[in-house]
Amino acid sequence: MSDQTVQSSESQINTLKFEGMAESWESRRSLMTLADLDTRLLERARQGAGLSALSDEEYLLKRKLADRRGRGIVLRNAAALLFARYGPDHPNAGVRLFRVIGTKRYTGIEHNVEERPRCEGNLPAVISEIRTVISSLLRRPMRLVGSRFQESAEYPDFAWLEALLNAIAHRDYRIEGTCIEVWLFDDRMEVVSPGGLVGNLTTEALLTLKRVHHSRNPRIIRVLVDLGLARDQGEGIPRMFAEMEDAFLPRPDIDATNRNVTVTLRNTLTLNAMDREFISAIGDLELSRNEFRTLLYTYRHGQIDNARLRALSGLDTLNASYLLRGLRDRDLLVLHSQGPKSYYTMGW
User: Fold this and answer.
1) Buried-most residue among 80, 81, 164, 231 (CB within 10 A)?
2) pLDDT digit string (tens) for 143-152?
């Protein structure tokens, strides 16, 4: 592999220098002890990681959530965030949820904002509670799901959950003066995470929709994967965009400043002439959601391959191949066999 020269701005270089010198918040020593942690949650994490044979102490050491000190261990902040029985010491590690009546926030006599009870506790508890509350608040209009119109949430589940999980997993926990905030407007959802993007990551890089592996809190993410609450494969952002596109909704907006990162999802349908032609063309075909997604992407972009389908759907290589071959066998796709570069185009 040859060397490459990459141009970076002065601010990006300074950010990398600072991060190289500064200890991450999740790795700092916690004042909590093993007795303060939720043993059932630790057991669940050990089982999810395939490490049931380890003790809680051994698991924490293996996941770099604790350090050996004599005969005992000293916990890191990440352990407290993830497993504290009554919540971590961090004053704002939870999520605040606001419901806005309308599309703009007003104050004074026109005040139109309702704040729901704050979701607090260890991170798995926060994720579970905020997911339940948001699900209960989302409207369920008639939308195109697969090849049929049916009642569905105003935002695809994966899209808003990905925005929420990213905020929780990647926020800057050094900032203790503010929570993650979720704002539900009539026309959009905004998820605001304290802290800017990590390292030299930019919104431009995220919007290329290529897989990105860069985390401010790798210990936290590793355990969220063990608990089955996240997947650390860099596929979340591309799939979030694909889910919105498949629902005929606008592309998400990602806005990053030095203070926070905001992901905005909008719920206004964007059916164009090409989309309407596609819906008319598939007629009464019986299609699963992933089959519909595959045909829609191919119709819009001219072709699809196994790798692109995996990014869109979360399927593994084998199941993506089964799906593509099934559509080919129904004459809905045409295979262009070129070995590892094989691709499919529309069959009509």
Assistant:
1) 81
2) 666 556 667 7
